[in-house]
């Protein structure tokens, strides 16, 4: 029988957004400050794990109806394709570049193609972590 | 553009990723795996011709100059090995069409094999020591998953041992790389070679060299680090064993060849002598195992160990003939070992047992299978017109030139015992009176024999057309003996 953990559930509903926003911040900061795809992905995964702890795995599956194995595959595909993309510009595999762009709201921003590769890493880390945790967790049934 | 060098690495990686999306579509997986194998054969074939005419090629990842970035280096040895690995991929993929249960195919067999090949090809092509470690891990991770795929009791037991041994050897690898980095400050192999040549390989570097020998020896299964191999290679289904026997130990051997010809070649009287002694004992241990057992898998697995000894002997004699023989035998061994494991897989599918004395008379019902096995067995032992002969001949010449008479004597005697061990299978299981279980029918075996026939035909052509293969292997030998060619190609200004 589950105890009535209303405090945990309410707190989770708030905290989870803070964790995800922080993880995305860390993910984007990776180029100039400590952070990056790996740690950002782990934190995002941690947010989902918290959701799984406060509710249960079925709730998480209902909230995020995605196969995490596909997320891993998608991340790998993105990472490889950013490397292959360099061929289009006649450069070697994994050649990266950056430039400054004027973006609305953000002003002058440095955008690097390394970010695209990092999105791949981010997705792979989320996919792998959650696949591991949820496939172990499911065996309890 | 020389993007050709990275193509053999990218093809299996991309295919593997795409196959992850196609989990439910087994037919698409089969077709794509096959296409990937053929594409790697084509690109590495073109690359091989390119290396022979234009010399060693190097490719800077991300456009960073070595030694600061990672380089891929394509010399004849690595490209030959890439070519032969992809041939084995094609043959084993063909075998899986009928020779692997649907359960395993459903659980990512094909993507795992593609990732395994990514790791193997990456390890062959890389010119950076830490990158070599990473590719070793890529191939090991895939092999962990492949060895346990299916989850039978023996597989679980053996995979624990296999994972444990490889985790330890990987930790040692990192330690060895750390020692070397702290001494030289670089990880690029060409740069390492130059710096060690400058300081003349002092004793401490030799110690690190031996640490590398332990690390790669554990992957390549030399004595006394082979103990994990007999169990783990006989646990998974035949097609996975064939991939392992054809490719995995060979990556360790390649790494030993590479490291001890490019980086640590200044004190061969210590390092190469030790390799020679270990290789000799490996041969002895291998043939003892091969002769001792009555189990088909065990006999083949110990032949893998003996083969490792043969190949490393070429490195130990460290002259043109020895290295030529080692490389030629390595290429031959990859194909023949894969073919033998596939043939034995087919035999086990008929007899339903791995024991030698429980069934016999296969040749009456399956002549193609029987005669293929005979050809494979004779080729393994090195009977003249077949591919095993030229490698061993050159190995023996190299051994005599280096005055390693004891090693050569053991090599000859081991060849005899290797022949005895496989001919025993031929006489007891394939010939003999008709004692097959009732369940066998000729339809189920058809698709299982053709892949091995394909490999045997190639290996036969390699033996008959040794003259055609000769320039490639000779070029590989030349590069190994003259590391400045390699260094020049990587660090060209």
TrEMBL record, chain A:
It is a multi-pass membrane protein. It is found in: Cell membrane. The keyword Chloroplast does not apply. GO terms for cellular component: plasma membrane. It holds the Pfam family MnhB. The chain crosses the membrane at residues 12-31, 37-58, 70-94, 114-136. Keywords: Cell membrane, Membrane, Transmembrane, Transmembrane helix. InterPro entries: CPA3_antiporter_subunitB (IPR050622), MnhB (IPR007182). Residues 7-131 form the Na+/H+ antiporter MnhB subunit-related protein domain. Belongs to the CPA3 antiporters (TC 2.A.63) subunit B family. This is Na(+)/H(+) antiporter subunit B. It comes from Halalkalibacter oceani.
From TrEMBL, chain B:
Keywords: Antiport, Cell membrane, Membrane, Transmembrane, Transmembrane helix, Transport. The chain crosses the membrane at residues 6-22, 31-48, 68-95, 107-126, 132-151, 163-183, 203-227, 239-264, 270-293, 300-318, 338-354, 366-386, 406-432, 453-473. Residues 127-416 form the NADH:quinone oxidoreductase/Mrp antiporter transmembrane domain. GO terms for cellular component: plasma membrane. It is found in: Cell membrane; Membrane. It is a multi-pass membrane protein. The keyword Membrane applies. InterPro entries: CPA3_Na-H_Antiporter_D, NADH_UbQ_OxRdtase, ND/Mrp_TM. It comes from the Bacteria. One of its GO terms (biological process) is ATP synthesis coupled electron transport. GO terms for molecular function: antiporter activity; NADH dehydrogenase (ubiquinone) activity. The keyword Cell membrane applies. Belongs to the CPA3 antiporters (TC 2.A.63) subunit D family. PANTHER family: NA(+)_H(+) ANTIPORTER SUBUNIT D1, NADH DEHYDROGENASE. This is Na+/H+ antiporter subunit D. It comes from Halalkalibacter oceani.
């Amino acid at each position: 029988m589950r105890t009535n953990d209303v405090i945990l559930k309410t707190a989770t509903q708030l905290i989870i957004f803070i964790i995800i926003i922080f993880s995305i911040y860390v993910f984007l900061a990776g180029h100039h400050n400590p952070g990056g795809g790996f740690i950002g992905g782990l934190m995002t995964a941690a947010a989902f794990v918290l959701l799984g702890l406060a509710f249960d795995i079925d709730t998480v599956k209902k909230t995020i109806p995605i196969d995490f194995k596909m997320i891993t595959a998608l991340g790998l595909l993105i990472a490889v394709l950013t490397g292959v993309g360099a061929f289009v510009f006649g450069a070697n595999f994994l050649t990266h570049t950056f430039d400054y762009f004027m973006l609305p709201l953000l002003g002058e921003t440095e955008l690097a193609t390394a970010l695209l590769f990092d999105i791949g890493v981010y997705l792979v880390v989320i996919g792998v972590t959650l696949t591991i945790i949820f496939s172990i967790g499911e065996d309890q049934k | 553009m020389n993007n050709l060098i990275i193509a053999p690495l990218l093809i299996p990686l991309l295919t593997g990723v795409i196959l992850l999306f196609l989990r439910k579509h087994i037919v698409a997986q089969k077709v794509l795996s096959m296409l990937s194998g053929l594409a790697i054969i084509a690109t590495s074939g073109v690359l091989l011709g390119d290396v022979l005419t234009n010399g060693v090629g190097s490719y800077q990842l991300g456009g960073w100059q070595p030694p600061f970035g990672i380089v891929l280096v394509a010399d004849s040895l690595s490209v030959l090995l890439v070519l032969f690995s992809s041939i084995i991929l094609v043959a084993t993929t063909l075998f899986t069409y009928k020779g692997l249960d649907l359960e395993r195919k459903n659980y990512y067999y094909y993507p795992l094999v593609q990732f395994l090949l990514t790791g193997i090809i990456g390890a062959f092509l890389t010119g950076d020591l830490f990158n070599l470690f990473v590719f070793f891990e890529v191939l090991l991770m895939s092999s962990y998953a492949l060895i346990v795929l299916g989850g039978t009791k023996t597989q679980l037991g053996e995979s624990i041992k296999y994972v444990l041994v490889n985790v330890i050897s990987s930790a040692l690898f990192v330690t060895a790389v750390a020692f070397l980095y702290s001494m030289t400050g670089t990880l690029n192999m060409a740069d390492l070679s130059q710096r060690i040549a400058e300081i003349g390989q002092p004793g401490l570097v030799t110690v690190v060299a031996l640490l590398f020998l332990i690390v790669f020896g554990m992957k390549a299964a030399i004595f006394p680090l082979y103990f994990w191999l007999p169990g783990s290679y006989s646990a998974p289904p035949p097609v996975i064993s064939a991939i392992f026997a054809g490719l995995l130990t060979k990556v360790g051997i390649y790494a030993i060849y590479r490291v001890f010809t490019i980086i640590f070649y200044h004190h061969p009287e210590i390092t190469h002598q030790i390799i020679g002694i270990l290789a000799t004992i490996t041969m002895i241990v291998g043939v003892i195992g091969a002769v001792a057992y009555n189990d088909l898998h065990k006999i083949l697995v110990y032949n893998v160990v003996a083969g490792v000894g043969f190949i490393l002997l070429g490195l130990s004699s460290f002259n043109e003939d020895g290295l030529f023989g080692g490389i030629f035998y390595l290429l031959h061994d990859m194909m023949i070992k894969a073919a033998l494991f596939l043939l034995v897989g087919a035999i086990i599918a008929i007899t339903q047992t791995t024991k030698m004395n429980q069934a016999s008379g296969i040749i009456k019902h399956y002549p193609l299978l029987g005669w293929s096995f005979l050809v494979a067995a004779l080729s393994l032992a090195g009977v003249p017109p077949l591919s095993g002969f030229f490698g061993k001949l050159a190995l023996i010449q190299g051994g005599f030139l280096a005055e390693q008479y004891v090693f050569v004597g053991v090599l000859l005697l081991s060849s005899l015992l290797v022949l005895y061990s496989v001919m025993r299978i031929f006489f007891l299981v394939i010939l003999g009176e008709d004692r097959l279980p009732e369940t066998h029918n000729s339809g189920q075996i058809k698709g299982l024999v053709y892949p091995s026939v394909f490999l045997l035909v190639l290996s036969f052509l390699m033996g008959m057309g040794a003259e055609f293969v000769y320039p490639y292997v000779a070029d590989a030998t030349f590069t190994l003996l003259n590391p400045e060619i390699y260094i020049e190609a990587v660090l060209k200004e």
